[in-house]
């Protein structure tokens, strides 16, 4: 049986969207009479409500005989594994996300000692994941690569963190790069040298898979699981931005965030009102 590759971008704790997207992948592969190789480009953790469930689902592997999972490591996964193993030696913003993420394991940072066996197993699993998958035509990686550097000399930090000069590079790369890490909107971005599949699942409610089928040609098609934005995650993200910038959150700004979290206003309205109140500057 032939194999079709499905590359899934940043999940960030959205188990609901992951389950829906894997259903779509299975149905699409069955229609093509193909096995599905599912490559995850990392960032299973943080932001959304179900980091624990996402990692458990990826670790469980595919449901159909003949299918395979190829999970890669993202920067949030690396930070999570580091925080579990070594404590608060990561940036403050990452530690803030980590304290939320451990809640999905039924513990807190203060109570996890002695009750965090699954959390530590997941952290060890994430720490051991590869940074790239090369099929000879596409290079799958979380963030990207540094142009002009051979693949075997890429800095691991670049592979999970880089944005520029990778994102604006228009020249030839050793492989066409399939990556996540940088949200480019709620639709994937395709250029001659890269395929960007982070559609901001926690923000947009859209989790994307690129479908790479050699029999269908060299250009990808896409599957998307569509749900609601994670309002709580978006508010936490906005509060984190203010905290990093050292800006106190005024009662008026907090009221805007509360209105959004409770569904009284939409995301555009929250962003417009919060900007008027000085947020994000």
UniProtKB/TrEMBL annotation:
Biological process (GO), any one: RNA decapping
Domain Calcineurin-like phosphoesterase: 6-169
Domain of life: Bacteria
Pfam families membership: Metallophos (PF00149)
InterPro entries reported in the protein's UniProt record: Ap4A_hydrolase, Calcineurin-like_PHP, Metallo-depent_PP-like
Any one cellular-component term (Gene Ontology): cytoplasm
GO MF annotation terms: bis(5'-nucleosyl)-tetraphosphatase (symmetrical) activity; phosphatase activity
PANTHER family (alphabetical): METALLOPHOSPHOESTERASE, ZINC-DEPENDENT ENDOPOLYPHOSPHATASE
Protein's name in the database: Serine/threonine protein phosphatase
Organism whose genome encodes this protein: Lichenibacterium ramalinae
Organism classification: Bacteria, Pseudomonadati, Pseudomonadota, Alphaproteobacteria, Hyphomicrobiales
């Amino acid at each position: 049986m032939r194999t079709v590759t499905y590359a899934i971008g940043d999940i960030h704790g959205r188990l609901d969207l992951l389950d829906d997207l894997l259903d779509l992948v299975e149905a699409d592969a069955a229609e093509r009479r193909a096995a599905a190789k599912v490559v995850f480009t990392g960032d299973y953790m943080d932001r959304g409500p179900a980091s624990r469930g996402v990692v458990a689902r990826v670790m469980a592997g595919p449901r159909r005989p003949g299918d395979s999972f190829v999970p890669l490591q993202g920067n949030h996964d690396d930070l999570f594994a580091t925080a579990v193993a070594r404590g608060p030696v990561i940036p403050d913003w990452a530690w803030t996300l980590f304290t939320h993420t451990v809640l999905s394991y039924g513990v807190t940072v203060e109570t996890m000692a002695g009750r965090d066996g699954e959390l530590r197993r997941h952290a060890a699993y994430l720490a051991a994941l590869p940074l790239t998958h090369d099929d000879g035509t596409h290079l799958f990686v979380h963030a990207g690569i540094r142009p002009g550097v051979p693949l075997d000399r890429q800095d691991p930090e670049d592979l999970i963190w880089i944005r520029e000069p990778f994102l604006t590079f228009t020249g030839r790369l050793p492989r066409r790069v399939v990556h996540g890490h940088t949200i480019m909107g709620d639709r994937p971005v395709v250029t001659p040298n890269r395929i960007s599949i982070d559609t901001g699942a926690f923000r947009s409610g859209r989790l994307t898979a690129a479908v790479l089928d050699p029999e269908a040609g060299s250009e990808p098609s896409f599957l998307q699981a569509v749900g609601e934005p994670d309002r709580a995650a978006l508010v936490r993200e906005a509060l984190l931005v203010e905290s990093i910038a050292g800006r106190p959150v005024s009662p008026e700004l907090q009221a805007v965030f509360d209105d959004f979290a409770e569904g009284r206003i939409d995301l555009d309205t929250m962003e417009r009102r919060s900007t008027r109140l000085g947020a994000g500057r």
